[in-house]
Amino acid sequence: MNKRKETPLRPPSSKLLDKYQGDQFEPLYTAIVRVTGGVTQHGRASGHARSDDGLLAVDLRLPAALGGPGGGTNPEQLFAAGYAACFHGALNLLAARAGISTAGSIVEVVATFGRDPADGLFALAADVRVNLPGVERRIAEELVRNTERISPYAKMARAAIATSVRLQEPDSD
């Protein structure tokens, strides 16, 4: 039996926030995910997504709201999960560097697939909802604003999809 020693979980170093001085994009990590089409040969309707390391392996299904059977995840859920995790991580790095506790913080992303009035086809909209219980409102707003500036997902979304980022009251769902 091959037992792999697990590294204890801990947040990344706030040194990730140190400014890079190079003049070219410097890759730090690359994720590779392959989607196959499954029974219908359509990744969105019956596909399977698998990362090169095998740690992500999910069946993709067209949601019932789009005429599919449901029963599997979909691109909007995967995008929302990635966006929320990235934003949450960047928010907590900034807070840690500033000595602010964000215990119990929640980032929720609502990703909506819909019709694009510009071309009549499709577009995504993202609504990022941040809950920072116990953090004074002015400080929370500044943290969220600064997180928008450094989160790669927020930067990408601003350039490509309709996005809103807002701070929610701690008692809101």
What does this structure look like?
It is a single chain. By secondary structure, this protein is α+β, with helices and mostly antiparallel strands. The protein folds into two domains: 31-73, Single Sheet (N-terminal domain of TfIIb); 74-173, K homology (KH) domain (GMP Synthetase, Chain A, domain 3). It has helices at 43-46, 75-98, 137-150, 152-160, and strands spanning 33-36, 48-51, 57-59, 106-115, 122-131, 162-168. The strands form two sheets. The chain has a three-stranded antiparallel β-sheet, with no helix packed on it. α2 (75-98) packs across α3. The radius of gyration is 19 Å and the shape is globular. The mean pLDDT is 91.
Q: In the CATH scheme, what's the topology name of the largest domain?
A: GMP Synthetase, Chain A, domain 3
Widest sheet, order of strands = 1-2-3
Cα distance spanning the termini: 45 Å
Strand content: 15-25%
Flag low-confidence runs: none
> What's the rounded overall pLDDT mean?
91
Total domains, how many? 2
Instruction: Find the CATH superfamily of the largest domain.
Output: K homology (KH) domain
Question: What is the name of the CATH architecture of the largest domain?
Answer: 2-Layer Sandwich
Number of helices: 4
Approximate helicity band: 25-40%
